[in-house]
Design a protein that fits this description.
289 residues; alpha+beta; Uridine Diphospho-n-acetylenolpyruvylglucosamine Reductase, domain 2; Uridine Diphospho-n-acetylenolpyruvylglucosamine Reductase, domain 3; Enolase-like, domain 1; five-stranded antiparallel β-sheet; FAD-bd_PCMH
Length: 289
Amino acid sequence: MHPFAYVAPSTVAEAVAVLDEHGDRARPLAGGTDLLVKARANVWELDAVVDIKNIPELMNLSVGSDGLSIGAGVPCYQVYDNSEIAAEYPGIVDGVSIIGGIQVQSRAGLGGNLCNAAPSGDGICPLIVHSAVAKISGPSGDREVAVEDFATGPSRTVLGKGELLVSIEVPKPAANSGAAYTRFIPRNEMDIAVAGVGVFVQLDSSGQNFESAQIALASVGPTPILASAAGDSLVGKPVNDETIAAAAALAKEAATPITDMRGTVDQRKQLVEVLTGRMIKQAVERARG
């Protein structure tokens, strides 16, 4: 492994300054569960590692009337152990609770999962369907990017030179809404998704019709996919098997997978259709309480 400097700033400005100085030869250290593996494998040759765990804004986790704020350094277990988050954002808990194993979850978090930009990232689709926004700081100031636009390719993001993900902001879900996420893996746990699906639905006051919906797909394209046509197809429709099956078929069409050692194109597309139907039904159950 290439020798590097370890830096532990206490402010966002200090972290941004180090990242800007070293460019691609510096990386933030949140959980380190991806960074250290890639550094040891010489995927990245680093001159500096910037530990963000001492920066208060990046370790903040709060639930309020406006929504949920997740600092980029907050580990997974703090998210799924929070009873308010579990009650209001079960779809996010679905995803964050299956990232790695318990040991990984004590260090790794949604911020790192998002910045790693793996198409199979289990934390990303739940954030997309919740209309989450990434707050970014850099040498030119602060900006916000919708989570569905954050990843630009496998292991590539919108982050520019010196920029740092500070937090993920999730709006408060409307009444009569529910969300769910699942994936298919060959093993029981600690595996990479062959396909994954996240769904968010809002029902009318009767609970019998869809008012809005978002569907996102994991591990079936170069980035997580917001299947807009599939989600839009539910709007104004009754909650029934026919409506759900039609949306699931559209989600299947939105998938653009490849064949690799974990699965074929046809298998992944079929999985997307099946999992979408299941997650719509589970989201509806949660929306109905």
